[in-house]
Amino acid sequence: MAKQGFSKASRLLGPSQYSTVFQKADFKLSAATMLLLVKKSVLPPRLGVIVAKKNVKSAVQRNRLKRIIRESFRLRQEEFGTIDLVFLARRGLDKMNNQEASIQINKLFDELINKLNRSK
């Protein structure tokens, strides 16, 4: 069993890494979320999280959502392969409780993993 930590190597850091994903990204939409992804050639998969104040007013709610997103990614990062992923929270995700938000996020991750497996 591999490590399931969320180290610096597993994060998108800095504007240049985010802009690379935004420029070359495929995207996956759901009602309350958007995923942008770019395939790359090296491990590990990396995650960037954007929860805008415009979409989620309360700082407590923004931080809660970021924790849920990071935890869902951390537990499933081996399944993603070699991608950079930016997770954008949209309006409505903050209205869900932790369990509902986690289910919504994992459902989106399932769809993404299925899409990645089909394209191999």
TrEMBL record:
Gene Ontology process terms (BP): tRNA 5'-leader removal
Gene symbol of the encoding locus: rnpA
Pfam families documented for this protein: Ribonuclease_P
Gene Ontology terms: cellular component: ribonuclease P complex
Protein name as catalogued: Ribonuclease P protein component
Catalytic activity: Endonucleolytic cleavage of RNA, removing 5'-extranucleotides from tRNA precursor
Similarity section: Belongs to the RnpA family.
Organism of origin: SAR86 cluster bacterium
Keywords: Endonuclease, Hydrolase, Nuclease, RNA-binding, tRNA processing
EC number per UniProt: 3.1.26.5
